Amino acid sequence: MPDRIQRRAAQSGAADVAIDASENLITCSGRWTSGCLGDMELRLTKLPLTAGSVIVDLEPVSSLDMTGAWLVHRTRERLEADGRAVQVVGATDVARRLLELVENNRPGQIPQSTDHHGLVEDIGRSSTRQVAFYVEFLEFVGNVTYLAMRAALRPATMYWSVIVRELEEAGFDALPIVGLLTTLIGVVIAYQGGIVLAQYGGSIFIADMVGAAILRELSPLITAIIVAGRTGSSYTAQIGTMQVTEEVDALRSMGISPIELLVLPKAIALVVALPLLTMFGDIMGLLGGAIMANALLDISLNSFVDRLSQVIDIETFLIGIGKAPVFAAIIAGVGTFQGFRVSGGADSVGKQTTVCVVQCIFLVIVVDAIFSIIFSRLGI
């Protein structure tokens, strides 16, 4: 039987299988590769096996690839699940290594690591990766700063059309979400504070509370967090996708600096847009507070504005606006840097985008806290 099968397989080249029911001997022959298997899996399930152990003979197989190895493995698993002992014989060295590879990587199988790290070694490896990350980020920031200074000396070399488009996307398109959320923040502050102030007969002081909280802290912070989630993530996704599709490499091959084309316009546009968005958030937040003060405490809009002009000075406004360019530089830097760290496929784009949003929000809050400490020390 095997000789006849070998001759037939050699003539056709296609995969074939035969059964010797008296010995439960399954003889495979021909090319067990992805293009030659056809309905082989269905044929294997219909073999007339008798009770007892099974022998799978791979000696007549002329070639075996990963698809054929998976088919042999699944057949073996199915027979063993029926309570049979299965023995695979006649495999070449290559076929045996493929079968071992399939066996070690079957679904649900967790690859066993051959590296056994101790706690100290794990801490050392993690620290080394973190140090390398910070060194890489500082190198990126230094490169961007150098190119920005060079571009400032030669404004004609800057991509002004790209800057205008980025300004529109990062600034103008973000007005609705920034306006809505800062208005709601103003409403919440006025509502929560107004109830307490009304109990002590100080309802008019609601303007003091809303004005200071919105202008000095909440509007810059909330606006920066919104922009980090909206614009920072888009920077990472855009540059990351260009990394995956090798468009960044194409720019370099054409002599175009990716930083000058992809990073500087975004950074410049965001440094301009975020203070303007913060100013818009200030107005909408105060408007939300005034509406709630009128509804909850019966304070008219004129009274609210008069009180606001008496207690809120220009310094409070400038403190909030002054933070915005710093937040913008953080968001643009982290967003574009994480985009250039994308490697591989779409999974990496999603991972780096998530990392970008987390790092941007974390750094914005940390820097805002540092500003508060500095202003407190300076008595501002």
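Next protein, fold it too.
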Amino acid sequence: MESGVFHSTYREDMRLRPTPLMRIRIIIVILLVVIFPFTANTYQLTLANQVGIMAIAAIGLNILTGFTGQISLGTGGFMAIGAYGSGLLVLELGLPWWLTIPIASLVTAAVGAFFGLPSLRLKGLYLAIATLAAQQIIEWAIIRSPFTGGVEALVVPAPRLFGQRMSTDFNFYWVTLFFLVLTVMFAVNLFRSRIGRAFIAIRDQDIAAEVMGVNIFRYKLLAFATSSFIIGMSGAMLAQYRGIVNYERFTIEMSITVLAMIIIGGMGSVSGSIYGAILITLLPALLSNLGTFLGGSVPQLAGIMPFIQRGSFGVVIILFLIFEPEGIAKIWRNVKDYFRLWPFSY
């Protein structure tokens, strides 16, 4: 039985996966995600791409809300900036699609830092309302701007790499996986650095952090910019994947959906962001398939299935808030602890 994890060198202590069991788990996960696209059908690949893109957005919001304690309801607006930025850079300037993603993310980071300025004076519910205003302003600007096409959808040419069309479900799966791994590695290492620890100190007790020498305003703006960069990247990927950008996809509903992902997955947890994205993205699809399956034998169910889908979204959030506020990440930690300490799990 494992009696503890002891490290004799600094290098071992700083490893991302310090125990053999953790390294075995990550190898299994890598094998599964590599094998998956060769065994999945188009529908499953579409869901996988949606999960990957939303997981990136959830990690971005978790950096701001979960790790830094700054509530934001403007995620949908920042995703819209990334999506429209990437699409317009391809259409107007003719830039390669892969280059537009980091450029659009940088633009989103600048906009996010601007809307983060009120964070010096506001916190909690007041800051949430300020970011909600950002969401409304961005939506208004997109609809009114002559560059975005207003209410008309922006059609983005299909991305190509080495002659291959990348917007197909199979090809884009690798693009999504590349950016998701990049985002996870960045986020995990961010909170092992001085900057990440400053974010956590601000979340836990901002006055004490300031007394210790943390520049509150600078780090709050940096958190907004970092979070917005990643959220903008997810929006840019969505534009390149779908090929059609419309403001209706990035409304306040999108902001609440991503917020629900990190609440259900686990606030302040990178892996929890992925768990939340998986559950929230797959739950409507599972209910839809269930409704189709039962539609033949219980036709009354088909009519109320859309209401059940919407209701289940709220019910899941309420249940997690009541029974496990720390989300799926905490449940997974409990499961691992149980087996690690078995048969002395008490």
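About the second fold: The longest strand covers residues 154-155.
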